[in-house]
Amino acid sequence: MIEKGAAKAGIYGPDGGFILTSFIGAGHSFGEFTVFTDLPLSHDISAVGPTTLINIPAKVFLKLCDREPAFLSALLRATLLRSHVLIEMLHALRLLALVPRVAKYLLIMAPLNGVNAKLRFRQSDLAATLGLSRASMNRALAELESLKLVRRYYGHIEICSAAALSVWLEKTVGDD
């Protein structure tokens, strides 16, 4: 579990390239799949800046789940929310045009309050996650920036207003 800081999760491809799948922050956990399903680790997790982890061995974790059903219930809720996010991402990847797809992904990755949300990843990481070229990602972010929905910085992207970005996305996708 991440106590402080953030981490990026992804998969190394056969060519050695890293495919970013998500960013996680304080309070997020990882590794539950291996504990509950005996599946092998599927992702690599790397800290993004100073990060503190709490390591809970599998046996201790399972005993905690037995003793504290509320903990297990909260974990189930978090896991189902992650599944929902994955379904939303698949929808965006399969059905949306470039700029709405990028907007949808930014909204998925934004913190819940969404006010001036800073997403600490590079445009190239975002492009790789969505299977886009850096040029396509740059073009999409430039369009969203021209609409004053996002701002691009070195090392992060800021969502000016998640509500405004969401309204724009709904209008844009609704027009198709």
What does this structure look like?
The protein has 176 residues and is an alpha+beta fold. The chain has 2 domains: 1-55, no CATH class; 96-176, Winged helix-like DNA-binding domain superfamily/Winged helix DNA-binding domain (Arc Repressor Mutant, subunit A, Orthogonal Bundle). It is built from 7 helices and 8 strands. Strands 3-2-4 form a 3-stranded antiparallel beta sheet. Strands 6-8-7 form a 3-stranded antiparallel beta sheet. A hairpin with a 2-residue loop joins strand 7 and strand 8 (156-161). Helix 2 (58-67) crosses helix 3 and helix 4 (98-109) crosses helix 6 (134-146). It is globular. The mean pLDDT is 85.
Summarize the structure.
The protein has seven helices and eight strands, in the order βββαββαααβααββα. It is of the alpha+beta class and 176 residues long.
Average pLDDT score = 85
Number of strands: 8
* Major beta-sheet overview: 3 strands, antiparallel
Beta strand %: 15-25%
CATH domain class name of the largest domain = Mainly Alpha
Largest beta sheet: what is the strand line-up?
Answer: 3-2-4
Stated plainly, the CATH topology of the largest domain is called Arc Repressor Mutant, subunit A
Alpha-carbon distance between the two ends:
41 Å
At the fourth level of CATH, the homologous superfamily of the largest domain is Winged helix-like DNA-binding domain superfamily/Winged helix DNA-binding domain
Helix % is 40-55%
Number of helices: 7
- Morphology call: globular
Quaternary organization: single chain
**pLDDT < 50 runs, ≥5 residues:** none
